[in-house]
Specification:
This protein has helices at about 1-20, 40-55, 80-90, 120-135, 160-170, 200-205; strands at about 70-75, 95-105, 110-115, 140, 150-155, 175-180, 185-190, 210-215. The protein is an alpha+beta fold and about 220 residues long. Helix content is about 40%, strand content about 25%. Strands 2-7-1-8 form a four-stranded antiparallel beta sheet, covered by helices on one side. Strands 4-5-3-6 form a four-stranded antiparallel beta sheet. Among the domains are: about 70-105 and about 185-215, 2-Layer Sandwich (Alpha-Beta Plaits); about 110-180, Alpha-Beta Plaits (2-Layer Sandwich), CATH 3.30.70. It comes from Bacterioplanes sanyensis. One of its GO terms (molecular function) is peptidoglycan binding. Keywords: Signal. This is SPOR domain-containing protein.
């Protein structure tokens, strides 16, 4: 009976060895190497990322549109001539607008005699006292581009202004004359187009005196 027992044990060992050999080998786990960037490399990456972000966020320059141009004729010396030219333009299907422009008068109206601005108000007072001691009517200019200068008056006649200028210069004081002109309203006719045939423009302004044509920015509205 003992040999039967040992025979069974041996059979079990053989079966165990057989099944052990039949099990698949455990797959090897691949090893991945992780490269960790250095502090200098990380700083470079951050800087590159900031540069790309700044480039994306750069503001786009606004597109500035050019003003629309219109043909403008003038100046007209009187309202009647302007009305006649406007009627001719309307007759050929053009839209018109009347423009009033303030312009300096062609003739000077007054001559302002003055001492140019001094270094300070104290120096201006010194010049004023010198002039008044010579019985020359004058006062300190307190505002504008000629502040701290001294005004000697406005004259309608140019020769009177020049006589006073020579009198003050004889005292060793720098004195100047500024021409003062009034403004006057000029009448201009604006056509609501820029590209108009030259012969058509001449027909509209024919017989209107020294009226000239030019292209200007169209009026608003």
């Amino acid at each position: 009976m003992r040999w039967i027992f040992f025979l069974l044990v041996l059979a079990n060992l053989l079966l165990l060895a057989f099944f052990w050999q039949q099990q698949p080998a455990t797959a090897a786990v691949p090893v991945t190497t992780l490269n960790v960037p250095s502090a200098e490399q990380r700083l470079q990456l951050v800087n590159e990322a900031r540069t790309r972000l700044a480039q994306r966020q750069q503001p786009v320059a606004p597109v500035v549109s050019k003003p629309r141009l219109c043909q403008v004729a003038g100046p007209f010396m009187d309202q009647q001539r302007l009305n006649d030219a406007r009627a001719r333009a309307v007759a050929v299907g053009l839209q018109t607008r009347v423009k009033r422009i303030s312009a300096p008068s062609a003739e000077p109206t007054e001559y302002w005699v003055h001492v140019p601005p001094q270094a300070n108000r104290q120096q201006a007072r010194k010049v004023l006292r010198e002039l008044q001691s010579r019985r020359i009517d004058s006062y300190i200019i307190t505002q504008g581009e000629l502040a701290d200068g001294v005004s000697l008056g406005l004259f309608r006649n140019q020769s009177s202004a020049e006589n006073l200028q020579n009198q003050v210069r004889a005292l060793g004081i720098d004195v100047r004359i500024q021409v003062v002109s009034d403004t006057q309203d000029e009448l201009w006719l604006e056509l609501n187009e820029a590209d108009i045939a030259e012969d058509l423009l001449q027909r509209i302004s024919d017989g209107m005196g020294d009226v000239r044509w030019k292209k200007l920015a169209c009026s608003a509205g």
